[in-house]
């Protein structure tokens, strides 16, 4: 599935949440989508959460 299709599906989900559930539902779907994105990136790359959140400064210490 291409990135454009994934973006379209995410946009449609946010649109439906905003239309039927209001602004609170829109924010909840957006926040859960961000959490799912981070979890998916962690699973795909196989990195540890500390490496993901550490940034570039981790190697300098």
List the topology elements.
Elements: H1 3-21, H2 23-45, H3 49-54
Helix pairs in contact: 1-2
Distance between the termini: 40 Å
Main sheet summary: none
The number of helical runs is 3
Number of E strands: 0
| H/E series | HHH
* Backbone shape: elongated
Low-confidence stretches: none
Secondary-structure-based class equals mainly alpha
Indicate the percent of residues in helices.
over 70%
Mean pLDDT reading: 78
What features would you describe in this structure?
The structure is a single chain. The protein is an all-alpha fold and 61 residues long. 79% of the residues lie in helices and 0% in strands. It has 3 helices and no strands. Helix 1 packs antiparallel against helix 2 (23-45). The protein is elongated, with a radius of gyration of 15 Å.
Please sum up the structure shown.
The chain is an all-alpha fold and about 60 residues long.
Structure keywords:
about 60 residues; single chain; mainly alpha; 3 helices; about 0% strand
């Amino acid at each position: 599935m291409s990135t454009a299709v994934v973006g379209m599906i995410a946009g449609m989900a946010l649109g439906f949440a905003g239309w039927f559930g209001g602004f609170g539902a829109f924010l909840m779907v957006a926040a859960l989508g961000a959490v799912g994105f981070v979890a998916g990136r962690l699973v795909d790359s196989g990195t540890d959460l500390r490496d993901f959140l550490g940034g570039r400064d981790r190697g300098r210490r």
